[in-house]
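User: I'm writing a short report section on ligand binding and want a predicted complex to refer to. Could you take this sequence and adenosine-5'-diphosphate and write out the structure as tokens? A short remark afterwards would be nice.
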Amino acid sequence: MVERMSIRTQLAIWYSVVFALALMLFGVGVYGIVSFTLIQQVDATLAESAAAIASRSAGGFQGGERVIRLPELDLFRAVVVEAISVDGQILASSIVNLNHHLDPAAVELMRQKPVAEQQPMFTTANHPKAPPIRVYTYPLVGQKSGQLFGYLQVATSLEQVHRAMNGLLATLVSAGIVGLILSSVAGAALAQRAMRPVERITDAAMEIYHTQDLGRRVDVRTNDEVGRLGLAFNEMLDRLGNLFRSQQRFVADVSHEMRTPLTVIRGNVDLLRAMGCADKESLDAIAGETDRMTRLVSDLLLLSQADAGMLPMHCEPINVAPLVADVARSGAIMADGRVSVESSVAGELIVHGDADRIKQVLLNLVENAVKHTPTGGIVRIVGANTDAGMVLLSVSDTGVGIPPEDLPHVFERFYRVDKSRSRAYGGAGLGLAIAKSIIEAHGGDIEVQSVVGVGTTFNVWLPAYQPNLV
Ligand code: ADP
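Assistant: Sure. The structure tokens for the complex follow:
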């Protein structure tokens, strides 16, 4: 499975990225509009001043030279003014001076055009040692003669505008950073909030998985997409529950119904045997197969009861030592001297459970151990207390062991490690599945460890009897 970021993280990141982009766009927009407006204002002032100066100026020839007569330039205090002759000489300038040509490049540019196309223009001039200035270059044309007699450059410093723009930029950047941090936090919180209903469904699904209780339902609170997902999930559970119950009922009914005919067959076989009117080998085969089927049917019935959580159990405090000794004795009878069966119980151990069922489990484990241990081997049953309020009962052997690839499956129904070997012993592969169901019905656990050629150990944990709790 490809490792992916959680949807919640993706949502939070998306939210922050979109918000950051919106913030950036807003910032660029505000900055652009404000700077445009400020420059427009500056330009308007310059154009106004230029128009006023131009209207009071006059040009003409004096001794063959073009001259410009300007009004009192220092009346226009806010701006710096320069009058430039057609050939680029400065003819006059205001007292408020900048110690450099305002924008010779603009004049040069204008001079290159034919007189008819010379339109006033705005430029921004940067001087290395002075703040940038906004310059308005204006061709001075005689009103009557229509002759170009010079240029007027009107300028003002952009220092104020730049200072205001820098202040605005600093404000926008810091507000942007704060906004970004706040939006990340808000994004994470929003994503968490948006995903909470989905998480509730996931939790409910996991709870159903762990408790194996198909009767539970997801709590549907809203009618949105997530609510509908919850509804769909609940409907699926309804269907699954119905299917599962009908399957359980079917297995239980079949097992139950088959018990009677099997008993009748078995009775008739015994009758035929007593009457001596049938071939003994055939009768033995029929009797053997009938016994096997009877065992299978009762095992299936027990499993279906356990699945439905209706395994009949009579729980009581059980002293482990006599129970283990009893199982060891039966094990020794099964082993018939071929392997030795030992048992030991540390101290007085009391578990809370159904004695018959626990004995059934231990007998099954011991029977398996005896079956799979070669002559001369040892089968050991050990009982001990654990810290977690549980009693550990382990059945170990020095037998053939279980291959690692089979180990995870041995508790599955009808699973046999070596099909041919197990069939010879007559096992259907239900013994360990039943053992697991019984132990889990007690609130305990069972696990297996095995090394091929060395031996196998089954560990069973059962709740210790605690007088004040029961
Ligand atoms: P069965 O009724 O066929 O014995 P079980 O569920 O009891 O089925 O066991 C499942 C499989 O686990 C068996 O096929 C058997 O080969 C293997 N097994 C169980 N116990 C042992 C053991 N102590 N040593 C080796 N194999 C074992």
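A remark for your report: Residues 368-369, 372, 397, 399-400, 402, 410, 415-418, 422, 427-433, 456 surround adenosine-5'-diphosphate (CB under 6 Å). Residues 316-469 form a domain with the Heat Shock Protein 90 fold (CATH 3.30.565.10).
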